[in-house]
Specification:
The complex is a heterotetramer, with 2 copies of chain A and 2 copies of chain B.
Chain A (H helix, E strand, L loop, with lengths): L1 E6 L2 H7 L3 E6 L4 H12 L8 E4 L3 E2 L10 E5 L6
Parallel strand pairs in A: 1-5
Antiparallel strand pairs in A: 1-2, 3-4, 3-5
Chain B lengths: L2 E5 L5 H7 L7 E8 L3 E2 L2 E10 L1 H18 L2 E9 L1 E4 L3 E9 L2 H18 L2 E7 L4 E3 L24
Classes of the chains: A alpha+beta, B alpha+beta.
């Protein structure tokens, strides 16, 4: 088990009701963690999202380490 | 004075524009994104912008650096607002100064196009009919949350 | 607030920009032409713009009308300065507001390109070395008048 | 013979030394008038210029009428 910090934005923050969670997880990869949270919070399908680990874009296959900060990124709409 | 920045205070294009002036520059192009009163056929009351600031600043600064490398321009700056915005307010400003106008136009266009596609900033529209929705998020529609119907558009906004 | 105008007083882009705002517009693009300190390899001290105002106003207004017809834009305005200008001063300003940014960029570019090619306005550069010359006038070089050498460029300036 | 008013700009005004002249001429066409003035004022070749009659662009072949106002337009350089 590892501990990661997950910060939520936009639709994800609306679904969770909190901006940030500290999570104990057995997830190996970012995509595993998303699947876990998707069930709990009724998140949208992964296909339309990106992920950032420690404030940098990452692959969904990237390994999660203890203490990582993770952000799931729904489709952006700046400007 | 090159780069990208996010702020919750109202943008001041005059102040930022003055920072891009140079006696070597003959051309200056700026883009302003204003909050419209309609989008995708719905009457919009107000907007809310939310940013993942740490990564938005990194990615925004990368985009401006790319523009400075691709085009022979002098200065380039992009400022994006976050928080609650009313109709007509300035949401994003891009300014580019260059020796000649062609490069200034192309670099300004490059920056706003890339910012809209790549920088983690989200926009929630509040509609006249009481609904609201996160723009461009087809997967966000959710019965019971008063989100608007899924969008078909792949192009992010104006 | 659409059209073209010539003035000898300093341009005030903020004032004109405010006239183009509309709640239906999501995008605004402006171009500014500044007086550069160098042109075609020579150090420029100052500039002098002269206009054939009656025809310049007609042709300028035609260009803006063309832009409004060609592109789905809301407002378009171009203001050109005449008289003596110092380095860094604003010589011409174009502003275009539109529902979407693509049209605003294209219409703004169209207007400045056409204005530079078609509107009867002339620019005299005064150089550091004491020479002076009417820009783009290949045939204007004249021994004894301290005009600069003929230009090869067919493209009118920045 | 007809009387036309000619206004000068840019390099042409520098050559004439005056912004406007009233001219008695037998010139039939705008190009004839230019040829006449070219000799007197050492003007550049016609090929690079345009002409306006009564504040509108005109053909070099346009007939001149008594009372017309004429402007010869060197290469423009606005912006």
């Amino acid at each position: 088990m590892k501990t990661v910090q997950v910060e939520y934005f936009a639709v994800l923050r609306e679904r969770t009701g909190v901006p940030v969670e500290t999570i104990e997880t057995a997830a190996e990869k970012a995509s595993d963690l998303y699947a876990e949270l998707q069930q709990r919070h009724d998140f949208p399908e992964l296909a339309s999202l990106k992920v950032a680990i420690n404030d940098e874009f990452a692959d969904w296959d990237a390994a999660l380490c203890n203490g990582d900060s993770v952000v799931f990124i729904p489709p952006v709409a700046g400007g | 004075m090159n780069g990208f920045r996010i702020q919750s205070a109202a943008l001041q294009p005059n102040v930022d524009r003055a920072m891009l002036q140079s006696e070597a520059c003959g051309g200056f192009v700026s883009f302003e994104g204003w909050v419209r009163n309609r989008n995708e056929g719905q009457d919009v009351l107000r907007l809310e912008y939310q940013a993942y600031e740490a990564l938005a600043n990194k990615e925004g600064n990368r985009i401006v650096a790319e523009a400075l490398q691709r085009y022979p321009i002098e200065h380039a700056l992009c400022v994006h607002r976050v928080g609650a915005l009313e109709i007509g307010e300035l949401a994003v400003w891009v300014g580019v100064s260059a020796g000649h106008r062609d490069e200034a136009f192309r670099a300004c266009r490059y920056i706003i196009d890339e910012v809209k596609h790549r920088v983690p900033i989200w926009k929630k529209e509040h509609y006249l009919n009481g609904d609201s929705g996160w723009v461009n998020c087809e997967a966000c529609a959710h019965p019971g949350h008063h989100d608007r119907p899924p969008e078909k558009s792949k192009e992010p906004g104006a």
